[in-house]
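To the wet lab folks,

You asked to see what we're planning to order before we commit. Fair enough. Below is the target structure as tokens, and below that is the sequence we designed to fit it. If anything looks off to you, flag it before the synthesis order goes out.
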């Protein structure tokens, strides 16, 4: 026979499990409900834009002709940020997790976390006040010697406030996010996998290549996609750094704009059809972010069986 004390303890545990599972279910449903309501609001508010005459919209050429340059600018800035940030972030995370002395690794970890907490407006102010003027000479050199490449065609901007500058600022902003996640993933690599590789004669780099990176591949992809989401939706830093203008092929000329910055700069004075147009642009950004996350989940699910994460 079980004692009354054990029976009461089991009943309390079952009640606690039921409460926790119910709370978790409610939280999950709440997230889905909020996402559905946001999508519904964007659709309802953006619908008049799709019915409006092209002459009533910005540029007088229709909504998609208006939003396409913004989409291109948004994607280019985010891609530049990821191209710069991804190798640096993975390298820093590997150094902290497998190469740096313990005290130095702890200090670098705190520093990375601090960088992730800095407001975006601070990065934007740094980009426009310090980074942009420093890059003007670099842009002139690129226009002079690599101007035959369309993305470096001149004349270069004399202010440095270009899409390439925005990409660099966004890279600095997403590096702490990707680094922090990758560091935690690398630290979770089973020690037996690492020790087995070293016991078989692998060097430190070979051990990382055959044990650490395959184990962390799904997590690395997730970290990169999270950084991409930050770059796609960044507003204040882009609005401060970028000199808005028409879509151009060169990255070192003044011009281009992103969806988030376009909304932030024009929303306070917008009304009527213009307001619906900006909300429709936000709907496009919402769809882009959703598609990016769906692709990321597909990539992770496709490769997770080849890692130790499962």
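Sequence we intend to order:
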């Amino acid at each position: 026979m079980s004692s009354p004390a054990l029976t009461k303890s089991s009943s309390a545990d079952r009640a606690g499990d039921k409460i926790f599972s119910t709370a978790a279910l409610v939280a999950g449903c709440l997230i889905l409900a909020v996402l559905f309501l946001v999508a519904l609001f964007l659709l309802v508010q953006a619908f008049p834009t799709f019915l409006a005459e092209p002459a009533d919209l910005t540029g007088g050429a229709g909504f998609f002709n208006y939003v396409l340059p913004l989409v291109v600018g948004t994607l280019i800035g985010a891609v530049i940020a990821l191209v710069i940030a991804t190798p640096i972030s993975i390298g820093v995370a590997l150094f902290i997790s497998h190469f740096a002395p313990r005290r130095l690794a702890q200090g670098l970890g705190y520093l990375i976390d601090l960088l992730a907490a800095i407001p975006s407006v601070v990065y934007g102010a740094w980009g426009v006040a310090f980074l942009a003027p420093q890059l003007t000479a670099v842009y002139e050199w690129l226009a002079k010697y690599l101007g035959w490449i369309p993305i470096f065609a001149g004349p270069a901007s004399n202010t440095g406030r270009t899409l390439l500058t925005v990409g660099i600022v966004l890279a600095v902003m997403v590096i702490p996010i990707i680094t922090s996640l990758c560091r935690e993933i690398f630290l979770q690599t089973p020690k037996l996998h690492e020790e087995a590789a070293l016991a078989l004669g692998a060097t430190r780099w070979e051990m990382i290549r055959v044990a650490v990176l395959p184990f962390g591949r799904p997590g690395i992809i997730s970290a990169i996609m999270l950084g991409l989401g930050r770059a796609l939706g960044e507003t204040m830093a882009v609005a401060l750094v970028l000199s808005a203008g028409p879509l151009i092929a060169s990255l070192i000329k003044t011009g281009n704009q992103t969806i988030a910055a376009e909304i932030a700069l024009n929303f306070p004075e917008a009304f009527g059809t213009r307001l619906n147009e900006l909300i429709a642009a936000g709907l496009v950004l919402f769809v882009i972010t959703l598609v990016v996350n769906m692709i990321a989940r597909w990539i992770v699910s496709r490769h997770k069986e080849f890692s130790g994460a499962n």
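Structural context that might help your review: The radius of gyration is 24 Å. The CA atoms of residues 181 and 296 lie 15 Å apart.

Thanks,
Computational group
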